[in-house]
């Protein structure tokens, strides 16, 4: 291929208008409906009606697209709610919102486990740290709070996704009567259980209010 043709092809690829946000939204739709395995450069190019080479011009690999998709899916969650509320309630609300988003996109959890090297939500974390410091939260417990609550939310979302099609009560009814008995007497919803667990993490690390 001549130098002229190579440059002409590069200009055509470069000129294809690709919106990073639209790419992320298409990726999120694929993840929600078909799973993260459906997110490939070829499939995204087809859905966006562009050439695969054009996507490679804007994104180095699939990881970059997944990182952007996670950023879009979780935009504003870390800073959600009224920051003038007591910090424990503010942080709990953020954690509940975070889990709620992960329940929609559990396939993003492996990407989010690498959120710091991938720079997902770093600016929001920075603002959240400053807010907690302003409210007098001891700096030595802020990252343990973030890490513990994120682990709890990610684990909860993965656990819910893995067990969504399993009716444990019926499965245990005949062979595991004790398990069946306690599984049918649960008095809390999954959301209530998570909220209590998250509150326990906050109070456990910060001490009594």
UniProtKB/TrEMBL annotation:
The keyword Transcription regulation applies. Residues 40-59 bind DNA. Gene3D superfamilies: Tetracycline Repressor, domain 2. Residues 17-77 form the HTH tetR-type domain. PROSITE patterns: HTH_TETR_2. SUPFAM superfamilies: Homeodomain-like, Tetracyclin repressor-like, C-terminal domain. Keywords: DNA-binding, Repressor, Transcription, Transcription regulation. It comes from the Bacteria. It holds the Pfam family TetR_N. InterPro entries: Homeodomain-like_sf, HTH-type_TetR-like_transc_reg, HTH_TetR, Repressor_TetR_C, Tet_transcr_reg_TetR, Tet_transcr_reg_TetR-rel_C_sf. This is HTH tetR-type domain-containing protein. The lineage of its organism: Bacteria, Bacillati, Actinomycetota, Actinomycetes, Pseudonocardiales.
